[in-house]
Design goal:
Layout: E1 11-15, E2 19-20, E3 33-34, E4 38-41, H1 46-53, E5 55-60, E6 72-77, H2 79-88, E7 93-104, E8 107-116, E9 124-131, E10 136-141, E11 147-149, E12 156-159, E13 165-174, E14 181-191, E15 205-211, E16 222-226, E17 229-234, E18 238-243, H3 244-248, E19 253-255, E20 257-260, H4 269-275, E21 282-287, E22 290-297, E23 307-313, E24 328-334, H5 335-339, H6 342-346, E25 355-358, E26 366-372, E27 379-385, E28 395-402, E29 410-414
């Protein structure tokens, strides 16, 4: 397989679910690349090191437009690993559950869980942290003492001055008096620096309190970094953030700041349950130096009346004493406005309901959306300039076909995120 990528594809779009290579019979014969890297197990039992040695992360860069070669990732485990885990849980393992939790800069965090035949809940669960900058892979257990994460598991990797990473995770701490997990907390897991991968005397896990007066209803959907701040997003409520320095320095508690979504876009927990998966029509992320919130609202009057709104938030500007940070409207448009663009018709794009708004820091001013093909399994990734357009309506700046048969949540990776390695035999 050629590693030359077309200039029109500066990044790959994949599903966040990583399949078990040995169980995916339809794709086993393709030219998967094994991501070769040095590795270490941190905060694990001695037996976990052997598990890590039997894990391979594989990638298929593929061809966007080929239904058989669409970009993908998978996990391959040796039979010895499955047998060992089976002995540890006193049962044969049925399969693995694996998904991408976060991609921040050069780092990707993956959740790996082993499941058994007779129990649906994960019995052994780990985080795999792959750093493409130095080709290293760390593994650590998901569970931390007296700590439980909230919402979607979104450990945020923060690079320290020594070159190592600290994973920061929002959750709740167990109260000794009641055994309930009702005390807001922040869990910090430290990974050794590449120059000292055998460092074992560091405090790997620290649980701190986190303070904000109105964070009891906050749910986690994503995490990212923004201008020296660690940010967690709730697609129904807003964001919570704190500075790196406050997070990484000593002390038992970290003060968080909260910026709520515009009132018209706040959704209660029960409303969110009725709406289904929020990632289909909302996103919060970093574009350029600003945080964007995107909302796609379908209309009963037809797909063309679907409303797309983009709001921005700037964390870099200092505030006056009585001011507070608020979202500002960047643009509001209907899909009918996009359909009427010459580029839309020339490219033969489908007039379908957009989904999965995608935000990339590198593409300042550009909103990406997926438009499903009305007659097949393919979809179109459309880039719309909404931040720098000088005309009345936004402009289409890019489009390409994606032959993805199904997607739960998109993962966006630069084409050079993985270096070419040996192929899976």
């Amino acid at each position: 397989m050629s590693m030359d990528e077309p200039t029109s594809r500066s990044f790959m779009v994949m599903d966040d679910i990583l399949s078990n290579y040995d169980c995916d019979h339809h794709r086993r014969l393709l030219d998967w690349e094994v991501v070769e890297c040095r590795r270490d197990a941190v905060g694990c039992e001695p037996a976990d090191k052997h598990i890590l040695d039997g894990i391979s992360l594989c990638v298929l860069r593929g061809d966007d437009d080929d239904p058989k070669l669409y970009p993908d990732m998978c996990i391959r485990l040796t039979d010895d690993v499955f047998n060992q885990v089976g002995r540890m849980i006193d049962d044969d393992t049925a399969d693995i559950s694996c998904s991408v939790c976060a991609v921040v800069g050069d780092t990707m965090v993956i959740s790996l869980a082993f499941t058994a035949h007779h129990i649906t809940a994960p019995l052994r669960q780990y985080y795999l942290v792959y750093d493409s900058a130095n080709a290293s892979l760390f593994m650590r257990p998901v569970q931390a003492p007296q700590f439980r994460s909230i919402g979607r598991s979104c450990p945020l990797p923060l690079r320290r001055e020594d070159g190592g990473y600290t994973l920061a995770l929002l959750g709740n701490r167990q109260c000794p008096a009641t055994d309930r997990y009702d005390s807001p907390a922040l869990c910090l897991w430290s990974l050794p620096a590449p120059s000292d991968i055998s460092q074992n005397d560091m405090d790997h896990c620290v649980v701190k309190g986190r303070h904000h007066l109105n964070d009891h209803s906050f749910n986690v959907h994503m995490a990212f970094s923004c201008n020296g701040n660690a940010v967690w997003g709730d697609l129904t409520q807003g964001i919570m953030y704190c500075s790196y320095s406050d997070l990484l320095k000593g002390g038992d508690c970290v003060n968080f700041k909260h910026v709520r979504l515009p009132e018209k876009h706040r959704i209660t927990y029960h409303q969110a349950l009725m709406m289904g998966e929020m990632h289909f029509h909302r996103n919060i992320g970093l574009v350029g130096n600003s945080i964007w919130f995107v909302s796609i609202t379908p209309s009963d009057s037809g797909t063309g009346q679907t409303m797309v709104e983009v709001w921005t938030l700037d964390l870099t500007q200092p505030l006056k004493s009585k001011d507070k940070r608020e979202w500002a409207t960047l643009i509001v448009f209907r899909m009918q406005n996009i359909w009427e663009l010459d580029a839309f018709n020339k490219k033969g794009l489908p007039k379908s309901l957009p989904r999965f708004p995608i935000l990339r820091q590198q593409d300042d001013g550009v909103l990406y959306m997926l438009l499903p093909n009305l007659t097949g399994s393919k979809c179109y990734l459309v880039g719309i300039d909404v931040g720098r357009s000088r005309g009345k309506w936004p402009q289409i700046v890019s489009s390409r076909c994606l032959a993805l048969p199904w997607m739960r949540r998109p993962v966006v990776l630069p084409v050079d995120f993985f270096e070419p390695r040996a192929m899976v035999e």
